[in-house]
Amino acid sequence: xxxxxxxAEPHPDVLARVSAHTSPPDGVHATPFAxxxxxxxxxxxxxxxxxxxxVRAGTEELRRRSGIPEAGDRxxxxxxxxxxxxxxxxxxxxxxxxxxxxxxxTLFARFxxxxxxxxxxxxxxxxxxxxTRAVVxxxxxxxxxxxxxAADGAVLLCEQSTWCLPAxxxxxxxxxxxxxDTAAPYLDLAAGxxxxxxxxxxxxxxxxxxxxxxxLRERIRREAETRVFTPFETxxxxxxxxxxxxxxxxxxxxxxxxxxxxxxxxxxxxxxxRMSARALDSLDRYVATLPPDGAIDEGVAYWxxxxxxxxxxxxxxxxxxxxxxxxxGMPLIGEVLRFPMRMQxxxxxxxxxxxxxxxxxxxxxxxxxxxxxxxxxxxxxxxxARGGRRPGSPVAPVTGGLPRLVRAVADREWRDAVAAGAPxxxxxWLPSVQVLVRRERAGDSxxxxxxxxxxxxxxxxxxxxxxxxxxxxxxRPLLVDIGKPTYTRETFSADRYxxxxxxxxxxxxxxxxxxxQGEGPGFRARVAGAAPAGEPGGETAGxxxxxxxxxxxxxxxxxxxxxxxxxxxxFVSSRRIEVTDTWRLTSAADGSATALHLIAAGDVRLVDGRxxxxxxxxxxxxRVEGEGAAPALEVWPLDDPELRAVWGPSLTRIxxxxxxxxxxxxxxxxEIG
Length: 673
Fold this sequence. Notes:
Residues 1-16 have low confidence and may be disordered. By secondary structure, the chain is α+β, with helices and mostly antiparallel strands. It starts with 11 loop residues before the first helix and ends with a strand. It is built from 22 helices and 21 strands. The radius of gyration is 26 Å and the shape is globular.
C-alpha cells in the first residue's frame, strides 16, 4: 500500500487560508460583486445612490446618525452607568502614576528575530486601552485632566511609526525591513482599530481639543489619510478586500472601522459615499461566504470579531441611510446572530473549534448582540446576551475598543438590562460545518452535553479536528478541545501543524496507523446516513434521545483506497454518551500503532479500569468497551498563558491502543456524582 507520509508538505491552499501575506496575481483590480447584499438592495448600495443620499444629508447629519455622541450631549454622558465610570476612573488614576507604555523597535523586531509577537501587541494594546479610559472619563466628567490625558494618548498613536502589527506588516517580506516601512503603510486589523479609536475620540472630544489642543485634530486627520484612507481607496491588492482571494474575519473588521472613521473625520459626503460603496461591495463578498445555517467555522471566539463586526457595519449602514439599507430582515443575518447562543454549554463555557477558546473571557461586547436581538425581535438571543450584563460590572470592556465602549455607554436599555437564563437549545445541527450540540432539556445545563464535529481541514483558522467531540457535565467541559495557544510566527506558517494543540493527535479523535489527519480541502468528514434534526429551523418533534450522528472519517486521513474509519455518536441520555468507532485497515508494514485519543481537563485518575475526570464539582467516568483496550495517561503541563487561563496547570491525554487491523470499540462516557 502506498500511503502519503504523516508529515506531508502543506497544500498551498492551506497556507493561503491562514497567512496574511500571499502574493496577489498581476493586474488585480476591483470588480463589482453581486452577492446577498446586492440581491437585497440592488443599486441602492452603489455609489451614485449613496452619493445622492449622503450629499442631501450633509456631514453633520451623517455624524449624528453614526450614533457616536459628542461630549456636549449630556443626555448621554451625564447618564453613563456609574459602575462603568468608577471602574474606568480607578484604572485611569493608576495610569497617571506611570509613563505611557513604550512600543519599542526592539519589541516590533522580535517577530522577525525570534517569532514573538505578543510583547509588542501587549504594549500597543495598553496604549489604546489607556486612551479609551481617558476619552470616556473626559466625556463623562468634563475634567481637564482627562481631556489632556486623552490628547497625550492621541498624539502618541499619531507618532507611532506604524498602526500595523508586526505579524501583519509586509515591510519584511517586501523589503527585508525589521522596522516598519513608513513610506508604504499596510492596512491591517490593528490599523483599522487605531483609526476608528482616534476618530471616535475626535468626535467625542473634538470641541474640547479645538479649544485646548489646537492642531491635534488636523494631525489625526493627516495620519488617518496617509495610513488608512488612501491605502483603502487605492490598493486593490489588499487581500482582505476579496478581489483575488477568499475573505475571512479581517474583511468586516477592517471595513467597519475604516467606514466609521471616514464618517467622523472626512468633511466630504461624496467621498464618504464612494468609500461606503466600496466597503459594501467588499463586505458582500464576506456575506456570500456565510452558510444559510449561520455557522462560523472559526467558532464563537471569532464570531465577535468576524460576524459580529459584520453586524456592526450593517447597523452603521442602516443608520447612515436612515433605514433604507436595512439587513435585519435577511434570514441569513438572523441565523448568524443566533450562532454563539447555540454553542453555549453553560455559564462561560462554549463549544470551541479551530483557534477559538472554550471559556468566555467576560470581555465580549455583549451590547452588540443585545441591540441586534431587539431590532430583530429574537428574545432568545436577547436573553443570552443579557447573561453577559453582570451586576456592578462595566457595560463593556476597555479591551473591546473605544467605539464599542461608547456605543454601550450610550445604550440606556443595555445599561438597565438584567441577567436572564441562558436559552441553551436542546439540539442543534449545523450541516455546513457538521457540528452537533445535544443536551437533555432546553435551558438546562445539568447532566451531560455532547458536541461533535465533522467538516473539513480547509476551514478558517483550521485545527485537525475532524471527528472530534466534547463532553460537558453541568455545562463544564471535561473531554475538551484544547483551543488556541498564544500566537507566534509559526501559527500562520508552514509550521502551523507542528503546534501540538492543532494536531489531530491532540484532539478527541482516532489515529489510524498512528497518522495525523491530512491538510486541505480533500481531507474531510462525510455524514453517513440521516443527519440529526434540530435548529436552525426550530426544534423537531420526535427528537428525544437517543440522538445519532455517524461520520465517515475515511477521507480525513491519508488512508489507502481499501481502508475505512467510521465514528458514530449517540446521546443516550443526560447521564450517558456513546462514541462507537468501526474501522478496517491494512496491516501497517512499519508497525505504527492505531489508537484512540481523548483530551481531559481537570483531575484525571484511573479507577477500576475507568478514567475518572473531575473539575469544578462535575465528574465523568470514561471506559472503552473492546477487548484489551486499556487507557494510558500522559500529562501535558501547560506553560502557555492562554491555555492556562482556560484549563489550569495541565491537560491529560488518554490513549487507547487498538492493535487490530479491523474492529469496533465503543467509548462510554457516564456522569458520576
